Amino acid sequence: MPRQHFNPDTLAKRVVGGHLLYSHAVSVEGKRMVFVSGQVPRDREGNVVGKGDMEAQIRQVGDNIKVALEAAGATWNDVVKTTTYVTDIDEFFRHMDARMTYFSALPASTTVEINRLSNPDFMVEIEAIAVLE
């Protein structure tokens, strides 16, 4: 699937830990879109994973997104947009390496700090949009 990432020099770039965090814009040509609902840090039995541990929660959410994508015939490589909700943005940015393991190409991305998620033990929730040929 042809994909272009745009990071114009006239727009500031967000870098944490030496990693560019997102693309300002992503252009894709594809035939099918996959929308992944907000995934939370629950295991397959519904137990909260990593209570109080942002890195563990990011990894569980990433793994859950992978499962949802695969069910729809997609992979993390097909993701062009993510929206991330966190309860502590500073803690989230401290564990950016955990997030970066899922991307080969950076999607367009929005991260929002909120007071709480649907369960007080959740620290992160991520939605994803993928485009397939």
TrEMBL record:
Domain of life, source organism: Bacteria
Pfam families in the record: Ribonuc_L-PSP (PF01042)
InterPro entries, sorted: RutC-like_sf, YjgF/YER057c/UK114
GO cellular component: cytosol
One Gene Ontology molecular-function label: deaminase activity
SUPFAM superfamilies: YjgF-like (SSF55298)
Similarity annotation: Belongs to the RutC family.
UniProt-recorded name of the protein: Uncharacterized protein
Organism annotation: Candidatus Entotheonella gemina
